[in-house]
Amino acid sequence: MRIHKEGWIYCIVATILYLLFVAFLTYILGQYAWLMYPLLILGSLLYVWVFWFFRIPNRTKTSNENLLIAPCDGKVVVIEEAFEPEYFKDKRLQISIFMSPLNVHVNTCPMQGNIAYTQYHKGKYLVAWHPKSSTENERSTVVIKNQKTEILLRQIAGAVARRIVTFVKPNDAVMQNDEFGFIKFGSRVDLFLPIGTQVNVKIGDVVQNSITPLATITA
Prior knowledge:
Blueprint: E1 2-3, H1 8-29, H2 33-53, E2 55-56, E3 67-69, E4 74-84, E5 90-99, E6 106-108, E7 113-121, H3 133-136, E8 139-145, E9 150-157, E10 164-166, E11 173-174, E12 179-183, E13 187-193, E14 198-199, E15 206-207, E16 213-216
Antiparallel strand pairs: 1-2, 3-16, 4-5, 4-15, 5-13, 6-12, 7-8, 7-11, 8-9, 9-13, 10-12, 14-16
């Protein structure tokens, strides 16, 4: 396991604040153990959580050109046909995955291909499961295209998240499971697939990026 590059500044700041917090507790509340130790435990848990949030675990990745692999960790909350207004401008099969603050927040490419489109949008910070979060929240859209299919991925910031990072740009060539972005502190990823795509998960399933086959490419 390692720490993601987007997390190092947070980990450094958290370390400084934690050391100051421990010094403060020791100096001010050293004689009040009944109060100092619960606060120390709470502070320690928060400190460890910062490192835990930005972790990148070692994983044996799933690789198959006929499968679309989950782009993030989380729970499947939507599987339905929906109108995609930004790029396709027609009906697509939408799969939405909600990421809690405890999930790994790396975003990876479900398939190999070329980046056909990227666009960042400023927006609100509704809770990630809100129906309007897909079109009104801060979000970033990425389209991947290959000879078999074309899919759209949308990174959506949640009520806590305030920073979406997208590493790819148009015309980039990407491999399946390559990292394309990161969302900080709780969020959601929407996928828009061609109608008729065979879905291999159901609502409520917990998926992992680079491991779980979400769908089968039927083209």
